[in-house]
Amino acid sequence: MTTSHPHIALPPLIAHRGLSAHAPENTLAAVKAAHEAGFQWVELDVQLLGDGTPVIWHDATLKRCSDGHGRLATLDLAMVRKLDVGAWFGDGFRGERMATLSEMLDLLVSLEMGVNMELKVSSRRSGTELAEAVIPRLLEALPAERLIVSSFDQPALRQARAIADASLLPIGVLSESVPNKWQSRCEALDAYSIHTDWTRLTARRAREIKAAGYRLLCYTPNDPAAFASRWSWGVDSAISDDPGLYADIAPPPTTAVR
What we know:
Elements: E1 13-16, H1 28-36, E2 41-48, E3 54-56, H2 77-80, H3 101-111, E4 114-119, H4 127-141, E5 147-151, H5 154-163, E6 171-175, H6 182-189, E7 193-197, H7 203-211, E8 215-219, H8 224-227, H9 230-233, E9 237-240
Parallel strand pairs: 1-2, 1-9, 2-4, 4-5, 5-6, 6-7, 7-8, 8-9
Antiparallel strand pairs: 2-3
């Protein structure tokens, strides 16, 4: 692992898709809610509309989290501006609009928040194209100490690394379960961290990762009691829908196992 990574004061708790247990996921409202609740880092998803506009959105379609239908790959910004992406969650969020990457970055900068930005590549889309559209904007807006870019898509991560070296762009390798060849994959990308499903992580693998010098993040543990043993394995951060549940359980940053 390189020694040129920026020093990131990574918190033990990161709000998944913003504070998604209390506000519509991946919206400006969800990020504001996370900040108001005292969480300084959020995890968000970015992908491209059909016209190439990067937007903060998880699914390939509109159905689950809006009042519209269709695939993002067939839409342009004018079309998605008409959508309500908050009413599905609750009347208090009626009128919320899909956030562009630029709008979200402006908010993160104004709140001085950190972000784990996942490059979300749906079927038949180009991870390379997504990275080319997103990475320069991230680098311009945020200091490396408040940024991690992650993805399941290897072409997206390779292109991200081609754009910026490890001193400027911390990369997180996303994997549902950590594969046997995890270290060679991380070394090829000069990665900063590994992000994995907490239910598939083993103590042995966690300790291998930590011994090799990588940060270890787990998604999406929403049961603090069930997750509690993972801190002793060396997990650095839990990416949770409702991190406030951890108030009496998560180790504070100064005592978390590293």
